[in-house]
Amino acid sequence: MIKFLLNGILRDKSRSVLPVIIVSIGVMLTVLLSGYMAGVFGDVVTQSAKFDTGHVKIMSKAYAENIDQLPNDLALLGINEVIAPLQEAYPDMDWVKRIKFGGLLDVLDEEGESKGQGPVTGMSFEIYSGNDSELKRMNFEDALVEGSIPAAKNEALLGVKFADQLGLKLGDEMTFIGSTMNGSMAFTVFKLVGTVRFGTAVMDEGAMIIDVADAQHLLDMENGTSEILGYLDNDVYDEEATLEISKVFNARYADSKDEFAPIMIPLKKQGELEELITLADSMSALLIAIFIFAMSIVLWNTGLLAGLRRYKEFGIRLSLGETKGHIYKTFIGEAILIGIIGSIIGTIIGLIGIYYLQEVGIDISSMMDQIDAGFMMPSVMRGKVTPNLFYIGFIPGLFAMVLGNMLSGMGIYKRQTASLMKELEV
Amino acid sequence: MNTETIISIENLTKQFPEGDGFFTALKDINLTFKKGEFTGVVGPSGSGKTTLLNIIGSLDKPTSGKVNVLGLDIGNLSHKESANLRNKHIGFIFQVYNLLPVYTVFENVEFALLLQSYTKSERKKMVMESLEWVGLGDQASKRVTKLSGGEGQRVAIARAMVKRPQIVIADEPTANLDAANAHAILKTMKKLNQELNTTFLFSTHDEKVMTYLDRIIHLRDGKLESEEFISHENDKV
């Protein structure tokens, strides 16, 4: 019977081609959009983790409450006592110091006169003062446009666009003007040793990057840091693990009334990332639901047309002794077969498309100035080929095809065998 | 000929709803059919021919009275039991051949067997034997859309006969055929009737059909008007 049905589907193009095309298009769009969203949201999470949030972030409670203001006066002090037990408890994790700060960058001419100034976002990493984990994580070598990575005290990198705006060349000196964590004025001359491009507007258009030891010195923050970021083994994010580690850590300080007591916040709970991750999950579910609904309506109509066209065939089969239930089952069986074929075709095309988007991406850097996202966003939005893309299209593809045909096939049960002779006369 | 009664009809009445009342298609019909009959039901349009064959073929149920086919009470059969009766014991031949156009001659005939539990080799043997009966053994792989009208009706006969049914119901089987093809088809059916002792019941207006019948039942306005038995003792197809 299966061979009989398969022959019917293959030979009767009107029974197969249109539904296969509809299913393929719907599945292709589902795969494309799911892969694109996975890529974009995944990139946002990865970027945020690398640049800003870590997989977990430790701050003082007071700093955490005012984090939008980068309140370095509320930074953690005595950080070795915080980091050492964590390294012992989680030896596979990497714990790094980060300090962000704001100020003014003053550029001097050959005669030492100010030739330009601009607000700057200072970012500090363990560039030469720690192991090389931060260098690898931030991929400084690849981000470097020209020059070299800071290797000595008071050497700095600038975002490539920022350096251009200020008219700075390698070797030029610039004065950072800001305030220490104690509120005193902070002046330090830094030497520009390299320019970098990370593909994010925040970094490329207004950032100065220095070693965390320089930042501690600049801000009078010896044995202190505004943030300690924790990264799981191999920098692979695991939401469950971060929630568990944070829970254990915070339990230790739960009863502390000290506003400078540390608090650990997992990636998901930082900024607007939780909303973003929830949104990504909801969007995927919504997308599938929309495609199931839309395709079911189209395929229901296609099924109704097929039912009309095959009215006579079903009549003949009833007269030959096939039950209505069996005809209905074979009708659904055909739908499953067509749904599988359409889903395979749609998945292959969708995967090719998403692979292209993964490799090439869509450059949105021109729009970045108008976006205030509340989290790190890459300037090239890329898709991502994930394992679930190999099956996700089958959900709307099969479900819509079967649902559409289940609805349209109900007419089989309304057939009156008593009318068959008359109906089959013409 | 085996004289076993395979169909018995007692006081059959069939009514259809019409407006506020009912239209009586068959009224108080009493008939019996024996195994191996070659019988025609004739009468003008609206006389009840098709309704009678519908009920015998288990496509419809009586309003009152009793119709027993091969020991089964048609009025009490479920949809599944009716389908099973048609599937195993009753073959249908229609005025238009009603073949499935996307399939070959072989596949059209084989379909009736797919609903039963025959093996592939059994099906092949039965289908080819059936096609040989109707003279289409060499056309098995041809698409039915490539066949002439006469050949199409032969395939329909092969499809009805392939499961070796005890009863074949033919509704105006020659209405769309020219005289030569109609005679060829009727001879084929008569031969199968004689060789396999299959009971053939026709609904017809066609004079050509009547010359082959052993028994003619005349219906008028849903009532049994008369019946005649014709002897063809010297005929041999």
UniProtKB/TrEMBL annotation, chain A:
Residues 286-415 form the ABC3 transporter permease C-terminal domain. Keywords: Cell membrane, Membrane, Transmembrane, Transmembrane helix. It comes from the Bacteria. The chain crosses the membrane at residues 20-41, 285-308, 335-357, 389-413. The keyword Cell membrane applies. Pfam families: FtsX (PF02687), MacB_PCD (PF12704). The keyword Cell membrane applies. GO terms for cellular component: plasma membrane. Its main location: membrane. It is found in: Cell membrane. Residues 16-242 form the MacB-like periplasmic core domain. GO terms for molecular function: transmembrane transporter activity. Belongs to the ABC-4 integral membrane protein family. PANTHER family: ABC TRANSPORTER PERMEASE YTRF, MEMBRANE COMPONENT OF TRANSPORTER-RELATED. This is ABC3 transporter permease protein domain-containing protein. It comes from Portibacter lacus. The lineage of its organism: Bacteria, Pseudomonadati, Bacteroidota, Saprospiria, Saprospirales.
Automatic annotation (TrEMBL), chain B:
GO terms for molecular function: ATP binding; ATP hydrolysis activity; transmembrane transporter activity. It comes from the Bacteria. Residues 7-237 form the ABC transporter domain. One of its GO terms (cellular component) is plasma membrane. Keywords: ATP-binding, Nucleotide-binding, Transport. SMART domains: AAA. InterPro entries: AAA+_ATPase, ABC_transporter-like_ATP-bd, ABC_transpr_LolD-like, MacB-like_ATP-bd, P-loop_NTPase. Belongs to the ABC transporter superfamily. Macrolide exporter (TC 3.A.1.122) family. This is ABC transporter ATP-binding protein.
